[in-house]
Amino acid sequence: MGAGIQACRERKLTVPILSVILITKNEAANIRPCLESVAFADEIVVVDSGSSDDTVAIAREMGAKVYEHDWPGFGPQKNRALDHATGDWVFSIDADERVTPELRAELEQAMRKNKADGYYCPRLSQFCGTYIRHSGWYPDYVLRLFKRGRGRFSNSLVHESVLLKGSSARLKHPLLHYSYLTMDDVERKVEHYSTAAAQQMYWKGKRTTLAGAAASAGWAFLRTYLIRLGVLDGVAGWQIAVMNMRTTWLKYRKLAVLNSTRSPNKF
Among the CATH numbers 1.10.10.10, 1.10.3720.10, 3.90.550.10, 3.30.565.10, which is that of 5-179? Predict the structure, then answer.
């Protein structure tokens, strides 16, 4: 990351100063290759929420600025990381994502040309060893590069997004996403995301029934496997459709429980 942002500005580099931000918890298996892929950045900010593994030590070893906070949800936590960033531009990455050399070159070119306030990256995700081209997973444009001060994250507990003030454009080269490495990983994330989604819907005043949960789950499967052509992804496409069905069933079933108990901390 060089001698730091101040030194970079003093040298009056023509390339704008870039801060990379990410949030972590127990990402020791992912954090090193992730940070290696963004080592070209002038500053890397990591906000950790109580890792019990070597995540923090590895991040510090690799030169990242590490801050430790409690866990308020994905959107609020990413805004904390954003508040620690000091660069002209910000690139948000997750620990299970990687920037390729081709994407790096495109990011640097986009910052130099400065034709938009934010840029969407296509994201190519892997599911248990298979890159997914259908199932609603690709190109999966995500807004990750933006001028500091022009973007903030939504306050969503899960499935947060960047709220951009200004113009946007799309990049061509994909951000690689190693989202689900094993079926155990799938089950862990299904439980986590379904609980967060149920709490978020409850706080927004949404209601459902078990019958409604079942109907939503069935539709999630059909939408993924048939309408979004998950069938073309082979076995992985079937597994993703089942995963989406199970996640949808759980989040609405948990919402139904919250509706009946009127307690957002039931789980």
Answer: 3.90.550.10
